[in-house]
Design goal:
32% helix, alpha/beta, binds iron/sulfur cluster, 8-stranded mixed β-sheet
Length: 328
């Protein structure tokens, strides 16, 4: 069952060039942050979104949540058009769709206790009518669900470690029993064992509560471990998409191959020879013509400069945007 469906989504930002653009609207620069992206996220599964910093993955997630304005395209949540929702429908959507950010401390009011932080969404819930005792019980239940001591409710955010702060973020995110959660670099800055605890907790909650995750990360090992389906983004576009196991076993796009080749492996036999990409990611203000990856691609051909490769199914729902896999 499709939970989220995104069709031809574009999110552009406009930057001033200076005096003229400020007063006459002239010379605005267009940042193509998300450029014609389509994808489907199935209910109860985890969809991983990967790519280097600046590829547009967080902007895509934030656009799905209407935290930033879409320029064009469609976003459906259970067949309801998110971009056309009025404020009442948007409030319902936001109860069903929650976020976990990487900067968990930055998301918590340092003057509120953890109990107040977790109770906040419960108090804001439309038609919420919990009395104080019920609210207290609910906060206790949520703290226990994320393996934190219920006595933590009276403490302040600065009294917790990074891993505990992430778990508080998870408790707050699941308070309204959401169907869908976007986790944006949810373990960034944590050591490996603390990160593993958070990942296992989120997997357990997914099983118990039938949550669907959009997992935004630059960490390919984590996406491989957590996600059922995934998409690789480069400069605002999806270049490869499909089942995670298919992409890791039969990666097709030169960019995906380079990313995966750089992932450290425990076994020396499994370690691939690293493919080093030349140069920096070009500016999304002026992306290269044809294939956006052509300025760094080790397999670049003449037509890559003029012809944009479409994202096509190369077999069993495995999509790739590269002329090497397009015979037309
Ligand atoms: Fe490389 Fe050309 Fe394929 Fe782009 S279309 S990834 S430049 S071979």
């Amino acid at each position: 069952m499709d939970l989220i469906k995104v069709n031809n989504l574009k999110t552009y930002f406009y930057q001033n060039k200076g005096f003229l653009s400020k007063f006459f609207g002239e010379g605005l620069k267009t940042v193509h942050a998300v450029d014609d992206v389509s994808l489907t996220i199935q209910k109860g599964r985890t969809f991983g979104l990967v790519g280097e910093s600046g590829c547009g993955k967080s902007t895509l997630g934030n656009t799905i949540f209407r935290l930033v304005k879409a320029t064009s395209g469609e976003i459906f949540f259970l067949d309801k058009d998110v971009l056309k929702m009025n404020s009442a429908n948007l409030m319902g959507f936001r109860q069903n769709a929650q976020l976990i950010f990487q900067d968990q401390y930055g998301c918590m009011n340092p003057r509120m206790t953890v109990g107040q932080i977790i109770a906040e969404p419960l108090l804001m819930k439309a038609h919420g009518d919990l009395d104080n005792d019920e609210l207290f019980d609910e906060v206790e239940r949520l703290l226990l669900a994320v393996n934190l001591d219920p006595d933590s409710a009276v403490k302040f955010p600065n009294e917790f470690s990074g891993g505990q702060a992430r778990r508080i973020g998870v408790a707050r995110a699941i308070a309204l029993n959401p169907t869908f959660i976007m986790a944006d670099e949810p373990t960034s800055g944590l050591d490996i064992s603390t990160a593993a605890t958070v990942l296992n907790l989120m997997q357990d909650l997914q099983d118990e509560m039938d949550i669907t995750y959009l997992w935004v990360s630059h960490n390919l090992n984590q996406v491989k471990y957590m996600s059922d389906d995934m998409a690789v983004m480069y400069l605002g576009k999806i270049v490869e998409m499909g089942k995670t196991k298919d992409i890791f076993s039969q990666m097709a796009h030169p960019y995906t191959k380079a990313l995966i080749s750089a992932v450290p492996q425990i076994s020396a036999e499994k370690q691939q020879e690293t493919i080093f990409l030349e140069g920096e990611i070009p500016s999304p203000i002026n992306p290269p013509s044809g294939c956006r990856f052509r300025t760094r691609c080790p397999m670049v051909m003449k037509k890559c400069k003029t012809l944009e490769p479409p994202l096509i199914d190369i077999g069993a729902g495995h999509y790739c945007a590269c002329h090497l896999h397009n015979n037309n």
